[in-house]
């Protein structure tokens, strides 16, 4: 089976496993966890240890800002 997370076009997906990190992100954007965009648990790019309700940080390359960081809430 192919590991899609290792493909050069797939951005880095990092699980925020520290609750304090999640709270900092939510406070920075002044949102609730449920307001974050969603990503399915079955998405092949997310870390294997991600559970429903976790937050994933996605770091994409960007021509204008070098890196673009977005956050997603894992759903079933």
Show the helix and strand layout.
Elements (H helix, E strand, L loop, with lengths): L11 E5 L2 H11 L8 E3 L14 E8 L3 E10 L1
Parallel strand pairs: 2-4
Antiparallel strand pairs: 1-3, 3-4
Identify the strand order in the major beta sheet. 1-3-4-2
Q: Kindly report the average pLDDT value.
A: 91
Please work out how many helical segments DSSP would assign: 1
Main sheet makeup: 4 strands, mixed
Beta content: 25-35%
Fraction in helix: 10-25%
- Choose one word for the global shape: globular
Strand and helix order: EHEEE
Query: Which class do the helix and strand fractions yield?
Result: alpha+beta
The number of distinct β-strands equals 4
Rg, please?
13 Å
Distance N terminus to C terminus? 22 Å
Unreliable runs? none
Please provide a brief summary of the model:
This protein is of the alpha+beta class and 76 residues long. Helix content is 14%, strand content 34%.
Describe the overall structure.
With 76 residues, the chain is an alpha+beta fold. Helix content is 14%, strand content 34%. The chain has one helix at 19-29; strands at residues 12-16, 38-40, 55-62, 66-75. The protein has a four-stranded mixed β-sheet. A hairpin with a 3-residue loop joins strand 3 and strand 4. The longest helix is centred in the first third of the chain and has 11 residues, at 19-29. The chain starts with 11 loop residues before the first strand and ends with a strand. 9% of the residues are buried. The model has no long low-confidence stretch (mean pLDDT 91). Residues 2-74 form the RNA polymerase subunit H/Rpb5 C-terminal domain. Belongs to the archaeal Rpo5/eukaryotic RPB5 RNA polymerase subunit family. DNA-dependent RNA polymerase (RNAP) catalyzes the transcription of DNA into RNA using the four ribonucleoside triphosphates as substrates. This is DNA-directed RNA polymerase subunit Rpo5. Part of the RNA polymerase complex.
């Amino acid at each position: 089976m192919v590991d899609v997370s290792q493909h050069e076009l797939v951005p880095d997906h990092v699980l925020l496993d520290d609750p304090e990190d999640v709270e900092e992100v939510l406070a920075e954007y002044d949102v609730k966890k449920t307001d974050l965009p969603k990503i399915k648990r079955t998405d092949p790019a997310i870390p294997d240890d991600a559970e429903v309700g976790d937050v994933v940080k996605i770091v994409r390359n960007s021509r204008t800002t070098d890196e673009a960081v977005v956050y997603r809430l894992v759903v079933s």
